[in-house]
Specification:
heterodimer; A: alpha/beta; Transcription Regulator spoIIAA; five-stranded mixed beta sheet; 40% helix; B: alpha+beta; 4 helices; globular
Chain lengths: 120, 164
Amino acid sequence: MPEPFVITRAVHGEIVVLALAGFLDAHTAPRFETAVQSEIDAGHHRLVVDATALSYISSAGLGVFMGFIEEVREAGGDIKIAALAPKVREVFNLLGFDAIFDLVDDVPAAVERFTATPSA
Amino acid sequence: MVPETSVRSLEQRFILKVPSSTRNLVMIREFVNRVAEQAWLSETERGQLELAVDEACSNVIEHAYGHDVQKEVTVRATFDDDAVRIAVVDQGAGFDPEAVDQEALETLIEQRKTGGLGMRLIRSLMDEVHYEIEPGRKNELTMVKRRQPPGVGPERGSGSDPES
């Protein structure tokens, strides 16, 4: 059986891109939570989540975004979410996450958004 | 997966029992998808059912059973011409459905909460949700997805369903 959930990390200057692949559910969400927490602990508050290869999300995955967004924004950063597949984006929309999170078409657009609005 | 055909309106019944571990959510979703396929639900509806059942089972595994793999989660699916009904059954602590978090998303975010979204997803994804809560004996959460009559146009669902 292939690995159901993989996180790949890349750095673009001050911006950290976490690319998610597979299923983000109650089983795999703790790994994503640990990954985001490590970035914050290391002082990285400008995060892009690349969801290109994310095929499934449940509320446990959305909970990770919800739990960290306030903290990174208070530190002058953000979590921008790029390239959500329509099925996954539908779940964000159902819970009203589209009004609160910056959902962008792709990673370059997300990176661009950070450079357009530099943190204080 | 054991199909049983009852006399009444050709209802088909499927049951999956798995140890209470989030590791088994993949198997649960696979089971729901297979049943939904047999029930001729659209791809969008299958996705909705899959997510709702995942949410219900995650709640049982994490809250009712506290990740105790000695416990068992039962997913019972039936469908007939009218609807697909999925019951998630446990013998755990149970919960008060009326007390489930109804706070605004903004409030949950301010409080840095990471949970409280599962039940609201289930309610928005399914046509009907019923509970029978007997803490420690049997808790049953039943979710109903009504089948659309054939010939309903592509405007139903999200509109992005390639099968409708």
